[in-house]
Amino acid sequence: MEYLKILSMAKIKQPKERKFGKGVARCKRCGTSVGVIRKYKLYLCRRCINEVAPLMGFKVYN
Ligand SMILES: [Zn+2]
């Protein structure tokens, strides 16, 4: 809760609550709604995919 308090004090813009659209998809790892990939039922944001992909068996090609 302390974290939320700091957030509101700093007046950081929080994402709008949505019932549909892009805001519905939340990253199940970090909770962000930005850059979440719903494809293949991943529900992970691009950053988390980057971190988790090798563990899930995805091969990373350079
Ligand atoms: Zn994430």
Helices and strands in order:
Layout: H1 2-9, E1 36-37, E2 44-45, H2 46-56
Antiparallel strand pairs: 1-2
Bound molecules: zinc ion (ZN).
Model description:
The protein has 62 residues and is mainly α. The chain has a domain at 21-57: Irregular (30s Ribosomal Protein S14, Chain N). It has two helices and two strands. The chain has helices at 2-9, 46-56; strands at residues 36-37, 44-45. A two-stranded antiparallel ribbon has the order 1-2. The longest helix is centred in the C-terminal third of the chain and has 11 residues, at 46-56. The chain starts with a helix and ends in a 6-residue tail after the last helix. The mean pLDDT is 79. Bound molecules: zinc ion. Residues 27, 29-30, 32, 44-45, 47-48 line the site of zinc ion.
Please name the CATH topology of one domain: 30s Ribosomal Protein S14, Chain N
Radius of gyration based on Cα positions:
14 Å
Could you tell me how far the N terminus lies from the C terminus, measured between alpha carbons in angstroms?
41 Å
Helix fraction? Answer: 25-40%
Please give the number of β-strands. Answer: 2
Provide the CATH top-level class of one domain: Few Secondary Structures
Computed structural class: mainly alpha
Order of H and E elements: HEEH
Compact overview of the structure:
With 62 residues, this protein is mostly helical. The protein has helices at 2-9, 46-56, and strands spanning 36-37, 44-45. The protein has a domain at 21-57: Ribosomal Protein S14/S29 (30s Ribosomal Protein S14, Chain N, Irregular), CATH 4.10.830.
